[in-house]
Here is the input.
Amino acid sequence: MAWWKSLFQNILFSFPFPSIFFQKLFLEKIGKKNSDLEKKYGHEVLVILERKIPWLLFFQGMNSKQRAFQLFLHHRVWDTEENDGILFYILVAERKVEILADRAVHQKLGSAFFQKICQETCVSFQKKEHEEAIVKTLEAIFVETNKHFHPKRKENELSDRPLIL
Here is the structure.
């Protein structure tokens, strides 16, 4: 994406206005789905919705992948007991999706799997199928991860509710 287009999208999302991504009912549905899937499969997925990249980081040249990695570290997604933490990051201003997984998951599933579902999610966003896209992506992550891992989690290590930044 051209730098100017990214700048325009970040300026546009600097002003508060209603967005499906930030409606209470929408967030509750996503949180409930994540919680239900975690109880069923036992994996840990943290969903983060960020309106835009903070200005200072944007002007330093940070892109969505770098921002997702920064949040992956900051929220300690990498520090789950089973090494199966996954970050599902949505940069709303640019309608970009990044999925980062802890080392154990990443070794089994690989980058190609995550790139594929990120692309599918972005296509659904373009069709204005926001809730369906997020639910479908969460299900795909849990189902595919469960083919390789069967954790016996005792406690919830990451928030089930989407984090809003």
